[in-house]
Write a structure and sequence with these properties.
14 strands; 264 residues; seven-stranded mixed sheet; alpha/beta; single chain; Metallo-beta-lactamase, Chain A
Length: 264
């Protein structure tokens, strides 16, 4: 059995809960510890039950409470070595024995779960997505993606659930109030994935047989949940797939838990 729920997803903070038969983990902790504690409580669990925190990269919307949670609840934290180099502010808050490093493209274990980190094109030290395997199932987390490529598609393929970034609408971003340098960063090859590319990616994967998708990491300034959802639906309609019928598609909420999906 595997279960997955997005606790928080957006440009303001991210954290995802994944549970196996005997193992519970968080991917990122980019909001306050209190918020994560309350979200887990609503799911019937708590931070003292968490076996590990996996860190995608060092940006604050993914790590702001990592050190605090690790120290308070004695939780091991797994990040790439280069990501650790960018997390000095978190290192000061946690015990050194809870620091563990992984290497992209090399499996490691947390309890009965197998974790495969894979490289993500983003402007951080060594950003990674994760494919998490347990009970013959695969859950993949892939956000903060500057551009899509074959390597990413291969890592996402054959997932029972994919949480994929759908960060912005290109026209909203271009016409919005962000300064030009920030627009360039977001639109660049190491920035964030737009709704249109999220739609093309999901259409390709759904056409290959995948069934369950969350859209995540939406910009508060340059996107709307309804717009992201509809853009992906439009892409899916081109290959004759309708969310709610052939596949599950939902936008992970910014400030509350998503639907809990379970795979047995």
């Amino acid at each position: 059995m595997m279960r997955c729920c997005s606790l928080f997803s957006g440009s303001s903070g991210n954290s995802i809960y994944i549970e196996g038969n005997n193992t519970k983990i968080l991917v990122d902790a980019g909001v306050s510890g209190k918020k994560i504690e309350n979200s887990l409580s609503s799911l019937g669990t708590n931070l003292s039950d968490i076996d590990a925190i996996l860190v995608t990269h060092e940006h604050s919307d993914h790590v702001s409470s990592v050190g605090y949670l690790s120290k308070k609840y004695d939780i091991p934290v797994f990040a790439s070595e280069l990501t650790w180099n960018g997390m000095e502010s978190q290192l000061d808050k946690m015990n050194s024995q809870n620091r563990f490093s992984f290497h992209p493209d090399k499996l490691f274990e947390v309890g009965e779960l197998d974790i495969l980190p894979f490289k993500i094109p983003h402007d951080a030290n060594e950003p990674c997505g994760f494919s998490i395997f347990g009970s013959g199932k695969k859950i993949t987390i892939a956000t903060d993606i500057g551009h899509m490529n074959k390597y990413l598609i291969e890592n996402m393929s054959m997932s029972d659930l994919l949480l994929l970034e759908s960060n912005h609408d290109i026209e909203m971003l271009k016409c919005g109030r962000y300064p030009w340098y920030l627009k360039q960063r977001i639109l660049g090859s190491s920035g964030h994935l737009c709704n249109e590319m999220a739609g093309k990616t999901i259409s390709y994967l759904a056409g290959s047989g995948m069934k369950n998708f969350f859209l995540g990491h939406l910009s508060a300034e340059n996107n709307f949940p309804e717009l992201a959802y509809q853009t992906v639906c439009n892409s899916l309609s081109e290959i004759g797939i309708t969310p709610g019928k052939e596949i599950f598609l939902e936008v992970a909420p910014r400030n509350q838990c998503s639907k809990m999906l379970e795979f047995v």
